[in-house]
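Handout, section B. The chain below has 211 residues.
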Amino acid sequence: MSLADRKEREKIKLKSKILDAAKKILLVQGERGLSIRKIAGMIEYSPATIYLYFKDKDAIMHELMNTGFTILTNALTQESSEANPVIRLRKLGLAYIHFGIKNKDWYNIMFNSEKPMQHIEKCSVEWDQGMRLFEYIRLTCREAVDACHIPDMDDELLALHLWSSVHGLVNLALTDRLEIIKPGHTQALIEQSLDVALDSIFLNHSSRSQS
């Protein structure tokens, strides 16, 4: 291994350590407890070293958000082989909800934190990971709309509607609100709610078209 390769590997390793430390601090102390100084102390480097890799803590949060979206996108693309687009939407919705419930820390960074989006606004960068995921959902919605012969349906608004639905279900599950509605039946409520959302669009329309 050349000296340049070794240095590059060390940079990648240190960047990963910075992100891991930031995530650990976030889990225990939340966003308000996160600081460059605390990250530096945890990995035993100077704060100046952290700034060589990240402009500020918002940039760190943005990087963590992108990592979370990569994990989520990988989970959703496992359902891409389903030929029926309506069934695929259901599988995507369930995979999304499963990810959110099983990865509460990632989910909160990705969707419930202002810091990553503040970094995007300050630095004029694109929300690439999030928009790629939304585009994948939109295209699947377009397939489903075409397959069900639904006229004048805006696929972008439909994707936003379905995304809002599953996002709401995740947050209700994470805060145990679904347990209040029907204790011990959170998973069933999630699946039934998703089915109602999809049926109200695709099944009901198909019934009206056939009548």
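Note. Residues 3-29 form the longest helix (27 residues). Compare this with the example in section A.
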